[in-house]
Amino acid sequence: MSVKSFKTSGVGVDLAPKGLVLINTTSFSAVASQNITSVFSATYDFYKIVYYASVSTTARVQMRLLNNTTPVTTSTYIRSQVSTNGSSATQDSGSATSWEMGGYDSATVSVSGDFTIVNVFQAEPTLISGIHGSTSARHLSISHNRQTDNTSFNGYQLIATAGTISGYVQTFGFNK
To answer: Per the domain annotation, does 10 fall within a domain?
Structure first.
Protein backbone atom coordinates (compact mmCIF):
# COMPACT_ATOMS: atom_id res chain seq x y z
CA MET A 1 0.00 0.00 0.00
CA SER A 2 1.55 3.30 -1.07
CA VAL A 3 0.71 6.79 0.10
CA LYS A 4 -0.19 7.70 -3.46
CA SER A 5 -3.09 5.28 -3.71
CA PHE A 6 -4.86 3.14 -1.15
CA LYS A 7 -8.35 1.75 -0.57
CA THR A 8 -10.77 2.94 2.07
CA SER A 9 -14.08 1.09 2.21
CA GLY A 10 -13.53 -0.10 -1.36
CA VAL A 11 -13.01 3.43 -2.74
CA GLY A 12 -9.59 4.50 -4.07
CA VAL A 13 -8.25 7.62 -2.38
CA ASP A 14 -5.27 9.60 -3.70
CA LEU A 15 -3.70 11.71 -0.94
CA ALA A 16 -0.63 12.92 -2.81
CA PRO A 17 -0.80 16.69 -3.45
CA LYS A 18 -1.15 17.64 -7.12
CA GLY A 19 1.15 20.62 -6.70
CA LEU A 20 1.15 23.67 -4.49
CA VAL A 21 -0.17 26.88 -6.07
CA LEU A 22 0.91 30.16 -4.47
CA ILE A 23 -2.21 32.20 -3.72
CA ASN A 24 -0.86 35.05 -1.61
CA THR A 25 2.31 36.46 -0.07
CA THR A 26 1.90 39.14 2.58
CA SER A 27 4.62 41.04 4.45
CA PHE A 28 3.87 42.99 7.60
CA SER A 29 5.85 45.19 9.95
CA ALA A 30 5.21 46.18 13.58
CA VAL A 31 1.49 45.31 13.61
CA ALA A 32 -0.67 43.95 16.43
CA SER A 33 -2.54 41.78 13.90
CA GLN A 34 -2.47 41.08 10.17
CA ASN A 35 -5.50 40.01 8.11
CA ILE A 36 -4.94 37.73 5.10
CA THR A 37 -8.17 38.08 3.13
CA SER A 38 -9.80 36.33 0.16
CA VAL A 39 -7.38 33.38 0.06
CA PHE A 40 -9.77 30.47 0.69
CA SER A 41 -12.31 29.43 -1.96
CA ALA A 42 -13.90 26.38 -3.57
CA THR A 43 -10.93 26.17 -5.97
CA TYR A 44 -8.74 24.10 -3.60
CA ASP A 45 -9.40 21.23 -1.19
CA PHE A 46 -6.41 21.97 1.08
CA TYR A 47 -4.28 24.97 1.97
CA LYS A 48 -0.74 25.30 3.26
CA ILE A 49 0.27 28.32 5.35
CA VAL A 50 3.97 29.04 5.82
CA TYR A 51 5.03 31.97 7.97
CA TYR A 52 7.97 33.69 9.63
CA ALA A 53 7.57 36.42 12.25
CA SER A 54 9.46 38.20 14.97
CA VAL A 55 7.74 39.45 18.10
CA SER A 56 8.57 42.76 19.77
CA THR A 57 8.05 41.56 23.33
CA THR A 58 7.30 38.39 25.25
CA ALA A 59 4.32 37.21 23.23
CA ARG A 60 2.69 34.43 21.27
CA VAL A 61 1.60 34.39 17.63
CA GLN A 62 -1.99 33.22 17.22
CA MET A 63 -4.44 32.72 14.34
CA ARG A 64 -8.15 33.36 13.90
CA LEU A 65 -10.28 32.60 10.86
CA LEU A 66 -12.04 35.39 8.96
CA ASN A 67 -15.70 35.45 8.01
CA ASN A 68 -15.38 37.92 5.12
CA THR A 69 -13.06 40.42 6.83
CA THR A 70 -14.31 39.88 10.40
CA PRO A 71 -12.22 37.68 12.72
CA VAL A 72 -14.19 34.94 14.48
CA THR A 73 -13.45 35.54 18.18
CA THR A 74 -15.89 33.09 19.76
CA SER A 75 -14.64 30.22 21.93
CA THR A 76 -14.93 27.69 19.10
CA TYR A 77 -11.22 26.96 18.55
CA ILE A 78 -9.96 23.68 20.00
CA ARG A 79 -6.21 23.45 20.52
CA SER A 80 -4.13 20.37 21.08
CA GLN A 81 -0.36 20.53 20.88
CA VAL A 82 2.77 18.91 22.18
CA SER A 83 5.53 21.41 22.89
CA THR A 84 9.01 21.34 24.24
CA ASN A 85 11.26 24.06 25.53
CA GLY A 86 13.78 21.73 27.07
CA SER A 87 11.18 19.54 28.77
CA SER A 88 8.06 17.91 27.35
CA ALA A 89 4.73 19.64 27.82
CA THR A 90 1.26 19.16 26.37
CA GLN A 91 -1.39 21.82 25.97
CA ASP A 92 -5.06 21.15 25.33
CA SER A 93 -7.82 23.71 25.24
CA GLY A 94 -11.46 22.84 24.66
CA SER A 95 -12.67 26.40 24.10
CA ALA A 96 -10.15 28.99 22.98
CA THR A 97 -10.67 32.16 20.93
CA SER A 98 -7.72 31.44 18.60
CA TRP A 99 -5.13 28.83 17.63
CA GLU A 100 -1.54 28.96 18.87
CA MET A 101 0.88 29.42 15.98
CA GLY A 102 3.90 29.66 18.26
CA GLY A 103 4.54 30.27 21.95
CA TYR A 104 7.61 32.15 23.13
CA ASP A 105 9.09 33.12 26.43
CA SER A 106 11.35 36.06 25.61
CA ALA A 107 11.34 39.28 23.61
CA THR A 108 12.54 39.63 20.02
CA VAL A 109 12.18 35.94 19.26
CA SER A 110 11.84 34.76 15.68
CA VAL A 111 9.13 32.18 14.98
CA SER A 112 8.21 30.10 11.96
CA GLY A 113 5.60 27.53 11.09
CA ASP A 114 4.18 25.29 8.39
CA PHE A 115 0.49 24.40 8.65
CA THR A 116 -2.02 22.50 6.51
CA ILE A 117 -5.66 23.55 6.74
CA VAL A 118 -8.64 21.43 5.64
CA ASN A 119 -12.40 22.15 5.22
CA VAL A 120 -11.85 25.88 5.61
CA PHE A 121 -14.20 26.91 2.79
CA GLN A 122 -16.76 24.13 3.32
CA ALA A 123 -19.51 24.55 5.90
CA GLU A 124 -17.85 21.91 8.11
CA PRO A 125 -15.51 22.02 11.11
CA THR A 126 -12.10 23.30 9.98
CA LEU A 127 -8.93 21.34 10.80
CA ILE A 128 -5.40 22.72 10.93
CA SER A 129 -2.24 20.85 11.80
CA GLY A 130 1.42 21.61 11.58
CA ILE A 131 4.70 22.36 13.22
CA HIS A 132 6.15 25.59 14.55
CA GLY A 133 9.25 26.62 16.41
CA SER A 134 11.25 29.59 17.56
CA THR A 135 14.71 30.84 18.30
CA SER A 136 13.76 30.52 21.97
CA ALA A 137 15.80 27.80 23.69
CA ARG A 138 14.86 24.45 22.13
CA HIS A 139 11.25 25.43 21.43
CA LEU A 140 9.26 23.19 19.06
CA SER A 141 5.52 22.47 18.89
CA ILE A 142 3.45 20.04 16.88
CA SER A 143 -0.27 20.76 16.87
CA HIS A 144 -3.58 19.56 15.51
CA ASN A 145 -6.45 21.99 15.98
CA ARG A 146 -10.10 22.34 15.11
CA GLN A 147 -12.57 25.20 14.67
CA THR A 148 -16.06 23.90 15.43
CA ASP A 149 -18.24 26.41 13.56
CA ASN A 150 -19.88 24.92 10.48
CA THR A 151 -18.97 28.06 8.57
CA SER A 152 -17.23 28.86 5.31
CA PHE A 153 -14.16 31.05 5.94
CA ASN A 154 -12.30 33.05 3.30
CA GLY A 155 -9.21 34.21 5.18
CA TYR A 156 -7.31 34.35 8.45
CA GLN A 157 -5.70 36.74 10.90
CA LEU A 158 -2.30 36.49 12.60
CA ILE A 159 -2.25 38.11 16.05
CA ALA A 160 0.41 39.14 18.56
CA THR A 161 -0.78 38.45 22.11
CA ALA A 162 1.29 41.45 23.20
CA GLY A 163 3.36 44.05 21.42
CA THR A 164 3.71 43.70 17.66
CA ILE A 165 4.80 41.20 15.02
CA SER A 166 6.77 41.67 11.82
CA GLY A 167 7.34 39.11 9.09
CA TYR A 168 5.71 37.43 6.13
CA VAL A 169 3.19 34.70 5.39
CA GLN A 170 2.51 32.68 2.25
CA THR A 171 -0.71 30.83 1.47
CA PHE A 172 -0.74 27.95 -1.02
CA GLY A 173 -3.64 25.87 -2.33
CA PHE A 174 -3.62 22.27 -3.53
CA ASN A 175 -6.13 19.58 -4.45
CA LYS A 176 -6.40 15.94 -3.59
So the answer is: no
